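Fill in residues.
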């Protein structure tokens, strides 16, 4: 990184960007290996170091218009909590970090008009959510799951509202995926008997996502977004009703179903 900044930025830009990217990659590996493999540094120090590397990568990418460096920083940022995981369930810390990472990539993406960052951010967020759901989701922390789904769904729905006119088509598609992705998890909550009694949280999530997609669709004139969200809402409620009205599970829940 130092060599690229001091010796190569004037006259050797094409060499400086890959070299600084290589330095960022080495730093990620060094902080990870220093903790996980050699136990030279503690987990908080390693985590802070990898966060600092992510910030450095974003600053270098913005300053020198280096999209690959931004992608490298983004990938390293999402890999950090996975690589340094202790196996304990700390959803507030995990998703607060992922939210801050998303806000950072939104700032970089809007400033440089790099729409690819939004798509990669959505993919990374989905994989982190899927990993946490698969390992830690239970009826006791359904509230945490619903809040996480709602926050990130709204975050990506804001993307087409903030994008420039020439980027709207691509941002609308990314925002639509960001809004509809939480419904994948809602389908599971609605169809799993263990979460039957958590219907207030599930219905609240559906109402929030449906209302937000309607607002976005009306603002941007994208009717297919609202149709897709409506279909997802109907399917979610139908799946839950199939569980709630099953006489074999006790007294049918007619009130919530209606």
């Amino acid at each position: 990184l130092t060599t690229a900044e001091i010796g190569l930025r004037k006259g050797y830009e094409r060499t400086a960007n890959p070299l600084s990217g290589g330095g960022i990659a080495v730093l990620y590996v060094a902080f990870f290996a220093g903790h996980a493999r050699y136990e030279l540094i503690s987990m908080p120090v390693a985590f802070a170091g990898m966060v600092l590397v992510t910030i450095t990568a974003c600053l270098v990418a913005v300053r020198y218009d280096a999209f690959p460096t931004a992608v490298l920083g983004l990938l390293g940022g999402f890999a950090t909590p996975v690589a340094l995981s202790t196996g304990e369930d700390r959803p507030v810390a995990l998703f607060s970090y992922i939210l801050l990472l998303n806000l950072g990539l939104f700032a970089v993406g809007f400033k440089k008009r790099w729409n690819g960052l939004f798509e990669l951010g959505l993919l990374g967020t989905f994989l982190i959510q899927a990993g946490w759901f698969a390992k830690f989701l239970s009826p006791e922390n359904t509230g945490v799951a619903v809040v996480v789904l709602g926050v990130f769904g709204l975050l990506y729905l804001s993307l087409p509202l903030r994008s420039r006119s020439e980027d709207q088509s691509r941002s609308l598609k990314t925002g639509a995926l960001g809004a509809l992705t939480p419904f994948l998890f809602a389908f599971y909550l609605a169809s799993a008997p263990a979460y039957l009694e958590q219907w207030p949280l599930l219905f609240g999530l559906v109402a929030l996502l449906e209302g937000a997609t309607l607002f976005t669709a009306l603002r941007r004139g994208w009717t297919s977004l609202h149709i897709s969200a409506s279909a997802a809402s109907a399917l979610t409620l139908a799946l839950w009703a199939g569980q709630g009205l099953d006489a074999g599970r006790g007294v049918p829940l007619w009130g919530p179903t209606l």
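The two ends are 62 Å apart (CA to CA).
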